[in-house]
């Protein structure tokens, strides 16, 4: 069982030789999720040894080029390398026609099915779930429809406390009920409380992705107690006005969101190419939220 | 005055860490031409120090992803970095809607004008000319409409042979006519022949681009005496059948085209990712055409 996030591109708007445009790879219990897909994401995946044929779900935040210009190429490569399994793409309105129009022009015959889920503007709530995880979306505040995402483990089963269970001398056939949290009474009227013979499930973990957005406190509710938060920080404090005008966030503002949401750790990204380093981003954010990180492309965070 | 070609991507179909997909930069007498624009071409341009804001003309061979998926990103970056000068794009039918549909989805406001020239399927002839150069196109033989291009210097003026001219003792006002190739008769009836007092113009040079295509002898006529020929060689001889099925060329076939066209030098490219090296391409081509080259990304050829 694993849950980790690889930053494939940490730059904003324009790719450089040191930072790609936005893309992240989330590996959660053998489900492989790509979040956003700027140009050359497939090359970043090769570089950082992320197997893109494993990706079964792509989440798209918004239809700006630095978040989607790598999609058609990635899907084209998946096809050329013989993919047959379904790919699911969840994103804002327009993501389907954006891709299908390109496929039509380049004559891309998709040898594998693609299932699109388009999110209505302003919508929030569950967009995906399976046995082990669930993904919810919420609106960010950018120039066009932009969705944030929170990927959460589902609670697992309770674990048997064998030592305590054995003290009761009841049939093992009751174990499943006890693990489901039910108290039981056996044929002889003996009562066993689930809490007394089982450990609670391991705490669930979650990861949230917020890019691109102006400073937008309404999202704090969606981010409550998140274990790892990625929040864009295109600018530092000196450019706060520019951040506001362009619907982006400063490092301090991102740290404020993390603090108010009671997040455990904060990753900043979407750094404007105007900055030679992220030292200022880090210093400013840490004045508000100590557990802040400013990664390079290729860094991996384990939850 | 300079005329050189930089190979920005020499791989086929799928970009790898060692070879990008097709793109070339041609610098001819301070006019800057991009030929094809696979995904991540803008990153390759940065890597190989090609100034993409200088590009004023883009030639597109065909609408397959590995030749056009970098276009929208490049144009987006040109805009974000403040370009105002016009960009001209010449390519097959559909290139305009392929780009404009993407721009519409990502809300790309073009701060600079883009002029499109779409070439009819099967067309050949002049597609561009200015004072110093001309560009002609011709159809290749691929699965969809695909255009080859030949970029040629225009003949310059004749040069004065001052020593011979001085022997005639006629007015210097006749020089321009003589340089234009006209013979003159001065007021005293003295006749001076242009050939006797001027040197012929420097020979013009030309570069031709042929990708993607099956082995297609009709193009030989268009490539006559070309100084530098780029011809795709996706496969080696062992995969000749596969080459034919997919409308691609082997190294030997490309060399045969170069030989029959009386080209001076041949660059191979569009190498399938199945080959670890291009040693076999080079060896096979050289059995037919000695002046063959198999470049890595970033190599520059000077005409």
Written description of the protein model:
The structure is a homodimer of 303-residue chains. The first copy, chain A, is of the alpha/beta class and 303 residues long. Chain A folds into 2 domains: 3-156 and 202-302, Ribonuclease Z/Hydroxyacylglutathione hydrolase-like (Metallo-beta-lactamase, Chain A, 4-Layer Sandwich), CATH 3.60.15; 159-199, no CATH class. Chain A has 10 helices and 18 strands. Chain A has helices at 41-47, 65-68, 71-80, 95-105, 162-168, 175-179, 194-197, 240-245, 251-261, 279-286, and strands at 3-9, 23-28, 31-37, 57-59, 87-92, 114-119, 125-129, 133-139, 147-153, 159-160, 184-185, 191-192, 198-199, 206-210, 228-232, 265-269, 292-293, 300-302. In chain A, the strands form 4 sheets. In chain A, strands 6-5-4-3-2-1-18 form a 7-stranded mixed beta sheet. Chain A has a 7-stranded mixed beta sheet with strand order 7-8-9-14-15-16-17, covered by helices on one side. Chain A has a two-stranded antiparallel ribbon with strand order 10-13. In chain A, strand 2 (23-28) and strand 3 form a beta hairpin. The radius of gyration of chain A is 22 Å and the shape is globular. The termini of chain A are close together. The relative contact order of chain A is 0.14. Chains A and B meet through helix 1, helix 2, helix 3 and helix 4 of A and helix 1, helix 2, helix 3 and helix 4 of B.
């Amino acid at each position: 069982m694993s849950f980790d996030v690889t930053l494939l591109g940490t730059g904003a708007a324009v790719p450089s030789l040191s930072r790609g445009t936005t893309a992240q790879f989330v590996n959660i219990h053998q489900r492989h999720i790509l979040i956003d897909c700027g140009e050359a994401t497939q090359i970043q995946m090769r570089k950082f040894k992320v197997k893109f044929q494993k990706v079964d779900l792509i989440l798209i935040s918004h239809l700006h080029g630095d978040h989607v210009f790598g999609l058609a190429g990635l899907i084209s490569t998946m096809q050329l390398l013989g993919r047959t399994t379904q790919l699911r793409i969840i994103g804002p309105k327009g993501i389907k026609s954006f891709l299908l129009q390109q496929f039509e022009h380049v004559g891309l015959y998709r040898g594998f099915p693609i299932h699109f889920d388009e999110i209505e503007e302003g919508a929030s709530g569950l967009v995906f779930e399976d046995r082990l995880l669930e993904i919810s979306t919420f609106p960010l505040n950018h120039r066009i429809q932009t969705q944030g995402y929170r990927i959460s483990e589902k609670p697992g089963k309770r674990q048997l406390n064998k030592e305590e269970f054995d003290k009761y001398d009841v049939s093992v056939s009751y174990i499943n009920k006890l693990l489901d949290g039910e108290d039981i009474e056996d044929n002889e009227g003996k009562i066993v409380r689930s809490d007394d013979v089982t450990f609670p499930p391991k705490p669930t973990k979650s990861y949230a992705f917020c890019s691109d957005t102006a400073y937008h406190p309404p999202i704090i509710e969606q981010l409550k107690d998140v274990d790892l938060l990625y929040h864009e920080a295109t600018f530092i404090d000196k450019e706060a006005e520019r951040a506001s005008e362009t619907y982006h966030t400063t490092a301090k503002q991102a740290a404020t969101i993390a603090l108010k949401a009671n997040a455990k750790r904060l990753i900043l990204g979407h750094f404007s190419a105007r900055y030679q380093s992220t030292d200022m981003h880090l210093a400013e954010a840490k004045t508000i939220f100590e557990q802040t990180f400013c990664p390079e492309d290729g860094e991996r965070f384990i939850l």
